[in-house]
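Example 3.
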Amino acid sequence: MQINITFNGTAQTSDVEPRQLLVDYIRGTGATGTHIGCDTTSCGACTVLVDGTPMKSCTMFAVQANGKSITTVEGLKQNGDLHQIQASFKEKHGLQCGFCTPGMMLTSAALLEENPDPSEDEIRWAISGNICRCTGYINIVKAVQHAGEQLRNS
Amino acid sequence: MTTTSHPKTPPEIGGIGHSIRRHEDARFIQGAGNYVDDIELKGMLHMAILRSPVAHAKILSIDTSEAEAMDGVVAVVTGELMAQHNLAWMPTLSGDTQAVLATDKVRFQGQEVAAVIATDSYIARDAVSMIFVDYEELPVITDPRQAMAEGAVVIRDDKEDQTDNLVYDWESGDKDLTDRAFAEADKVVSIETHYPRSHPSPLETCGAVADVDPITGQVTVYMTSQAPHAHRTVFALVTGLPEQNIRIISPDIGGGFGNKVPVYPGYVIATAASLLIGKPVKWVESRTENLISTGFARDYHMKGELALNSEGRILGLRSEIWSDQGAFFSDAQPTKFKAGLFHIVTGSYDYPAAHVIAHGAYTNKAPGGVAYRCSFRVTEASYLIERLVQNAAYEIGMDPAEFRSLNFIKPEQFPYHSPTGFVYDSGDYEAAMRKALGIAKYEELREEQKAAREEGRLIGLGLASFTEVVGAGGSDEYDILGLKMFDSAELRIHPTGKAILKLGVRSQGQGHETTFAQIVAEELGIPVGDIKVVEGDTDNTPYGLGTYASRSTPVAGAATAVISRMLREKARKIAAHLMEASPDDLEWEPGKFSVAGSPDKFVTIQDVAFAAYTNMPPDTEYGLEGVHYYDPPNMTYPFGTYVVVVEVDPETGVWNVDRMVAVDDCGVRINPMIVEGQIQGGLTEGFAAAAMQWITFDEDGNCIGSNFMDYLVPTAWETPRFELDETVTPSPHHPIGAKGVGESATVGSPAAYVNAVIDALAHLGVRNIDMPLLPDRVWSAIQDAKKG
Ligand code: FES
Ligand code: FES
């Protein structure tokens, strides 16, 4: 089937099998920053933004993204500069192995779009669909708070 | 002894003690990490594995014809085919054998039965479902004591001498001395508990891309390996291929926690398939495959007893454990120690007598027994002693903190010879505990607890004052499959003064690219940003035993410091030559040598590096590089005290962590930010063990806990908030005084959480609830206690 999507800002047309998962489609384009960590929609490693909303791309078919705009970790940078959430994850040591990080950052970026000054509980709730096995989340929360602060002050 | 860390180098150099932001982060935050599943090679095929749906059965027949006929299927591999190449079985890291693909029987649910190689991963999985296997089911054993019962079916009948299900009997300590201690005791406190089966489940599952060049015979295997060099040797032994033609590349690893130490059948099958087909083959397991077939942890049925005198002094300890090894004995641990380092179970306390007996048995469960974010079986040990100590305090009628204090090994007793043969390097347990109690405001909390009880509220305070043993090993005692547990570092300083450090260990998120560069920066004064760290490629790094059991800093970190110092001595000679002075007259400060008494006369390490390639003193070898293999004189013994405050809802059994105070002493901290990150992660793992994480089996051997909906790992929502602090007691034998920290919190914290819940119910007479402390278990314990 033919699909048209805007992938990290660039329009593209592809031929996909109806059963192909969106995550496999994305990874197949060479954008391997979107990861797979489970097979039950539990971990969030595959999170991407679909028209700005965080979605688990292992739980959508590529064909369901037809006509939509997809943002992955590779599309976070703006005009060659790191997105604030990326800088804040590094600054606050919000990552260790880095496997959850792309999904975690996308979920967080979407939260900050919607709520520029979230409380700790709001952050924890927002990222509760994204599992991190390394960090214990404290520094992820700090990174999101830091990014929020920087964005509000800019 | 207790000090705090202050950096000796300025921030521009960034040596030990600076919270340098991590070098590796740039690629991870931009989605440019390179994990196994990201590797794409030309013509690459995909492999999927058919696994046994039953826990114990004879294989009567395997019909692969329909699968083979499918479009896109290149080959179907069975045990029979592997056997023709002598690859149906492989050695485990514990010297047992494990089936690569089943030939005769399946012995656990999820065991590898056949594999499909196809042009894409969807087709491979489709074809797996078109392989038909006839099984004749056999009786199933899911408990090690059941395994040793009279008349139990023999699981490993493939092994000639195996007439029952015993894997090992092992003991440590002095039985007679311990019996005497118990005979003299005024009181004996005992506990019987199960440390349940758990799984490290790093967010990235295991996988490999095998690439065998049919013309040169070169075998390159990209794999999720915490120990690439050891794995290369195992591959050479398994396949008979010449070791120089095998290259293991362990690219970025998405968490390991012990799960990526063993060699798994999938790696071997993919490699064999690539060898047979002549094309690269990728295998990446699903989460379910990861949970049901790869290295589990714990599953220890433990009994412990403490002999006490009337004043509350511990006189001795006795412990007996039954270890559930699953169908193949594949613990990744030193050869000599069948129950790992479980005999550290005497803990942070001083008493002369201890005796530990361990039995391991085969069952129809997945093999493993990996050290899940801990040194070999040290988590189980720490849990047992800290639970025992808390209960002993109740029986003696002392506060658990005071009971610990009375029995602690004192600072002046180090190096301390433990009754089971360890030599603890250094510690100040009292100081760490007092600090934690101070932060928690322990006395006030006890008052609050009393007041709350009067209102019918259940508040509990749990302590754990753990001692860990990490950094195996010392070649006299520690080896895996005969490979001694040293580690290595190769340091090359380039003419422009920049450096590259190559290591035999492999980071899985611990931040080696930053912290190991900091060690070099400390020792040589080269700015940390000028140092590249390379790991995980056996063609390009010196041999090492790998990263697990918190051994990177204690062993490879020591190797790094030693080789840096050796190069500094060579640099001194070059500097003397450049300044026409005597090497003995030179003074060193980070980054430069100056002539004693005339600080204006100096050369920098960069000047020296350039001279090493352009202007050497006569009779000196050119270059400024070297390699050091470090064989540790002893292990290191991190410690600390954790204090947990919980409130239990008497109506539902639900418990909440109100506070978690963690004071860790891991010796000198190389990068405090990274150390704290490690502790936060470990405290979360400890909470997970106490609260939710377990893998169980029904009586037919079906794995319950085969995905993230049944095997619960904590999200940000459940994870408690932590309050961290430190004491610093350097390791006296480690070149930079560091002890290792990646696992302390996983080892020490489960007992603290559980002790807190028990403490909330102690006045009702509750002394034990097995982990995980699910609300229904807590609720039942309350009800049972009320009934008396
Ligand atoms: S891969 Fe785990 S939720 Fe998508
Ligand atoms: S950083 Fe490893 S899973 Fe989050």
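The first strand of chain A starts at residue 2 and ends at 7. Helices of chain A lie at 22-28, 84-91, 101-114, 120-126, 138-153.
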